[in-house]
Specification:
By secondary structure, the protein is an alpha/beta fold. It is built from twelve helices and 24 strands. A seven-stranded mixed β-sheet has the order 14-15-18-13-22-19-21. The protein has a five-stranded parallel β-sheet with strand order 7-6-5-11-24, with helices on one face. A four-stranded antiparallel β-sheet has the order 2-3-1-4, covered by helices on one side. Helix 3 (105-116) packs parallel to helix 6 (204-220) and helix 3 packs parallel to helix 12. The chain is globular. It starts with a strand and ends in a 5-residue tail after the last helix.
Length: 533
Amino acid sequence: MIRIQQLKLPVSHTHEQLMEKIAKTLGVRPEKIQKYKIRRESIDARKKSDIHYVYTLDVEVKNESSILHKKKHPQISLAKDIPYQFPLDGTESLHHPPVIVGSGPAGLFCAYLLAKHGYCPLVIERGRKIEERTRDVEQFWQTNQLQPESNVQFGEGGAGAFSDGKLNTLVKDVKGRNQAVLDIFIRHGAPEEIGYQSKPHIGTDLLRNVVANMRRQIEDWGGTFLFETCMTGLEFWQEQLTGLHCIQQGKSLYLQTELAVLALGHSARDTFEMLSHSGVWMEAKSFAVGLRAEHPQRFINESQYGEKLAEKLPPAPYKVTTNLKNGRGVYSFCMCPGGYVVNASSEQGRIAVNGMSYSRREGQNANSAIIVTVTPEDFEREGPLGGLEFQRKLEEKAYQLGNGKIPQQLFGDFEAGVMSSSYGGFSSAIKGHHGFGPLHSLMPKELMDSFCQGMHQFSRYIPGFDRADTILSGVESRTSSPVRINRNEQFESNKKGVYPCGEGAGYAGGIMSAAMDGMKIAEAIAKKYRMLK
């Protein structure tokens, strides 16, 4: 097939116009085009006077070699793809199924590949399966009664199951893992468009079904899931893993295994503490904290697209970032077009927020975390768990400021240091109990000042971003893991048979990068061990 890149068409183009543009680019009549496949679709909105779609397409047409010979142009080339290949050259024997701890994207994709290739993985998950977990989360948002083991952080699908479901990543991919992840999602119920959109997302409503379908496929291939099963300890013999101690619905459970993948997620704080006490090497790492900022989605659309196209294009995303003179970075994170701010707490007496969108992104507001970088130098506690303690203290203070609810404040009042008493030109799109609180007293002064500087800087790119009635909610503290569990070039920790994996272990930062890291761990296992069956 012939690949055409940088093919531009107006926003309101038709299928016929696309076909005509393909034919003109190749120098053939439209009827000579046998079929085409969109490989990438994006919106170029850099110039408001010339917003257009940009495509990369693979086109099947007769006499391809002749066309390629005649049309010497960098826009046209022979289509070449990198097929993903899973290694199967391990020689060592496994005496027990590999255990995967956690069923977020990292654990799920690791289990998927291992099950597909005959390793019969056992997945243990401290939370509930996605159907039950969804009911628990909805009930929490309605009643404010937290289930510590079944919430936005814990349960099948991981934290990403209650997010915008973004599927783009900055991870360099030379082995085809990125496309393989998208293909697997599509195979299990995700819309085909995610395979070519420049900024694909599934949405929390569709992602839940995809997760459940992947679980069923893993089980059909010989994998096993144990829900409501929390790992509480590791057992070793001469530095080699021999088993896991667990609690399953209040009862002790011991699992014999010589291989455990720690796909924990960034909120498994009690597990991080246990691993540290067990001699697993880890270190504190930098991350970022801040507040969720809400704006009307119409306001963001007009800023990004202009007034004429604000209602004709999909809800607009944005990405803003700046580096301040004090050395802090301030940037947007997990931006949710047409989304909701949600209570994402997982511990009693602490408040953490996140953003979430459904597949259609039909909410009235856009929200994003505006976060400030912190480093181990900011942590009061020394050692690998200093960042964890830093997060907890912020979340405890947020809980107190909101009297157990999500504390909110308008940006103008936040900067002036006064309580808000009502919303301004728009109301909050939020799930979970909430109320006004003095968020201006939440963070250390340098972080608060950095946040305000960032908001004003971002108004240079999105005029009015720092409008006084911007709704702030806090605290956004779970942007990434506060620790990194060290691993070598073979992906093992200092304890043999223990494979740190994904976002919680400090090696990923979203659904796609976590899924790809899970794939890397599955590959490392397959390179060393033979399949079980």
